[in-house]
Design a protein that fits this description.
single chain; 326 residues; mainly alpha; two-stranded antiparallel ribbon; 11 helices; 75% helix
Length: 326
């Protein structure tokens, strides 16, 4: 019961306040740790592929271990002092671990730039939230890239952290976010990170496997409640949910594309190099500016449905344990 209340409090705080300004964000601290350890491990391993694989595994163990142990220790100390203090601290940690408001705010900045300042300003704003090259994208491509970002990050910014919160509280969720951060920093399929980042990338794929599919299904339900094309969302999800280089990214992208009747995915340039990808969805209509708002609506309703579902499951388990004295 306490865990459900703490997660709900953190979720509401994130919706209302967004990222806390003026405070060091724990994910930034994890990023700094990754950067420091990478430099040290590379000096030791050199450029030998086998050594780089081992060094990448050492990085993963060290970062995830620290990400789990530090919040666990803080919460245990707080619990010993006062259960109320422990509740407040964990609720605040949950608040920091959600990205709902931030995802909405950053995507809507692209929307506002497109609407008021034009394509050049929108391309620049988009470059802050995507990895692809944005300099030559047209208005529809900027819109589609923003929609894809909202859809994909519904998993690793909201649904996946929430699932790990319900399973193992803040410590396990910080471990998940550490893996997610490592993947975003070193999990690339390029010459520099092909071996060093492989362990981080595989861990991220593993931890997101179930949450991505859950988020995809819940996004179909969200499209129903929003009166979008839920039948299209279901059809495209079943057909195109694996049309991506990542085993997880297309799960929510497929639901979103089907719900909005647009085509997402396809090949793009990354650091000047074209990376071919399959398309997701069908171009029943062109992607329009308002689709960014609709994608955010899908993200928000999916988040609420996720919280409701997980809370019901956890409370039901508690109730059954009490009834049967398990």
């Amino acid at each position: 019961m306490t865990t459900v209340a703490a997660i709900s409090t953190g979720f509401i705080m994130d919706l209302l306040l967004g990222d806390p300004r003026g405070l060091p964000h724990p994910i930034c601290l994890i990023g700094r740790l990754i950067d420091v350890l990478e430099k040290g491990l590379r000096r030791i391993s050199g450029e030998n592929p086998s050594n780089l694989l081992v060094a990448g595994a050492v990085l993963a163990v060290a970062v995830t271990g620290a990400a789990f142990i530090v919040p666990w220790f803080i919460l245990r100390m707080a619990e010993a002092a006062s259960p109320k203090l422990a509740f407040i601290l964990e609720a605040f940690m949950f608040y920091q671990l959600f990205a709902t408001k931030c995802l909405q705010a950053e995507s809507m900045k692209v929307y506002d730039k497109l609407r008021t300042e034009g394509i050049e300003a929108a391309r620049k704003q988009l470059s802050f939230i995507v990895g692809r090259d944005t300099a030559d994208l047209n208005e529809e491509e900027v819109t589609k890239a923003t929609v894809e970002t909202v859809a994909e990050n519904t998993t690793d910014g909201i649904v996946a952290p929430m699932l790990f919160m319900f399973i193992g509280g803040a410590p396990l969720t910080f471990l998940y976010k550490a893996v997610n951060t490592m993947d975003s920093m070193v999990g690339y399929r390029n010459e520099k990170y092909l071996y060093f980042g492989r362990c981080s990338a595989r861990l991220d794929d593993l931890l997101n496997f179930l949450p991505a599919r859950l988020a995809g299904v819940l996004m179909i339900a969200a499209s129903y409640f929003l009166a979008y094309d839920y039948k299209g969302a279901c059809r495209i999800f079943l057909r195109d949910r694996n049309n991506h280089l990542s085993p997880n990214s297309a799960q929510t992208e497929a639901s979103c594309a089907g719900a909005l009747n647009i085509e997402l995915g396809g090949g793009h340039f990354y650091a000047g190099r074209f990376v071919p990808k399959q398309t997701i969805g069908e171009a029943v209509k062109k992607a329009e500016l308002n689709d960014i708002k609709k994608a955010n609506n899908l993200m928000l309703v999916t988040s609420v449905l996720s919280l409701a579902l997980m809370a019901i499951i956890r409370l039901s388990i508690i109730f059954l344990k009490d009834v049967f004295h398990v």
